[in-house]
Write a structure and sequence with these properties.
The chain has about 120 residues and is mainly α. The protein contains four helices and two strands. Pfam families: HK97-gp10_like.
Length: about 120
């Protein structure tokens, strides 16, 4: 490809970046959904619930895609009610062994999330 002139160069740059935002958002959204599904599957369910609220497994939430930091991101975790206690079964306490379900989810979904990104960010529609 040969480019002659500033206008032709800018047109080529615009063509390369056309649709990038839409594809980037789709990639992050799909990766976050896959991570949330696996986190929900890996989150343990106890037979005892002293809070009277839903189980931790049912409290998995995915936020919308944000670019506030300059990077595309979507928060995945637990809702405001159950979120503050999620670290106890994950990291353990003096009376409970750690279950590390968050770390397990991260390692299990790393490849799948990267595949989602690559699939959505491939050049061309």
């Amino acid at each position: 490809m040969s480019i002659e002139g500033e206008a032709e160069m800018l047109l080529n740059v615009q063509n390369l970046t056309k649709g990038y935002d839409r594809h980037a958002r789709a990639a992050v959204r799909e990766g976050a959904k896959d991570f949330a599904d696996q986190l929900q599957a890996n989150t343990p369910v106890s037979g005892e619930d002293h809070s009277g609220l839903e189980h931790l497994q049912a409290a998995v939430k995915v936020a919308g895609v944000s670019i506030k930091t300059g990077d595309y991101s979507a928060d995945v975790g637990y809702d405001k009610t159950k979120g503050p206690i999620a670290h106890f079964p994950n990291s353990g306490t003096s009376k409970q062994d750690p279950q590390h379900f968050v770390e397990k989810t991260q390692s299990e979904t790393r490849t799948r999330v990267l595949e989602d990104f690559i699939k959505n960010l491939r050049v061309g529609d």
